[in-house]
Amino acid sequence: MAPEPALSRHLMQQGTELFRRALESVTDDQLAAPTALAGWTGKHVAAHVAANAEALGNLVRWARTGEETPMYSSPEQRNADIEAGATRPEADLRAWVDRSATALATGLDALTDEQWDRQVRTAQGRLVPATEIPWMRTREVMVHAVDLGGSVGYADLPLDFHAALLDDIVAKRSAAADGPALHLAPTDDERRWDVAGAGEPTTVNGPLSELAAYLSGRPATGLAVGGATADLPDLPRWL
């Protein structure tokens, strides 16, 4: 579930700048070190974000020309591109991140109204209008800006993004219904989210930013279960 297109494009721009800020905040040694993502260094994260921009550029080309251009030829090719990218020299990798982000933004800016409405296929196989491409990119740059372990944390991401991310993940988790039922009650926002799943819903309270971190499978702090300190329910993968 993507937010409305104008908000998605605005958040994508913000997320791109946050990722650049996070990348600038880590040294080359830190970039080569492991992250909280299993098996990935910061170089893997940066390579993934750069390769993602190019893959989404394929969808922009599809929207512009009407010729089917998948994001990746296969999941194996996607993984191989990330592994290869993670071996690049740090300076080359940083330049690739910047160059690919600029090219994607330029391509999106050139789409006409008709092209924005054209259907493209995500890496998960969903047919969506091209208007969803900015939101697909926003998720990547926002979440992975935090994964780099630099100066950007979940609390630094825009509140509009946290709410939109919860809308998106709640819809996906509820459709799959392969995890625990949850009732998410932010302590700093009046909105509430319910995740369909197994058992009676578990109420999780805490800051909106930390609820977004938890639901996206990232480390979260300051959350309470039913108003008390307790272990959070384990969640299956989101994407």
TrEMBL record:
Keywords: Isomerase
Pfam families: MDMPI_C, MDMPI_N
Record carries keyword Transferase: no
Entry superkingdom: Bacteria
One Gene Ontology molecular-function label: isomerase activity
Gene3D superfamilies associated with the record: 3.30.1050.20, dinb family like domain
Mycothiol-dependent maleylpyruvate isomerase metal-binding domain residues: 14-148
SUPFAM superfamilies: DinB/YfiT-like putative metalloenzymes, SCP-like
Record domain MDMPI C-terminal: where: 156-233
InterPro entries recorded: DinB/YfiT-like, Maleyloyr_isom, MDMPI_C-term_domain, MDMPI_metal-binding, SCP2_sterol-bd_dom_sf
Protein name, entry field: Maleylpyruvate isomerase family mycothiol-dependent enzyme
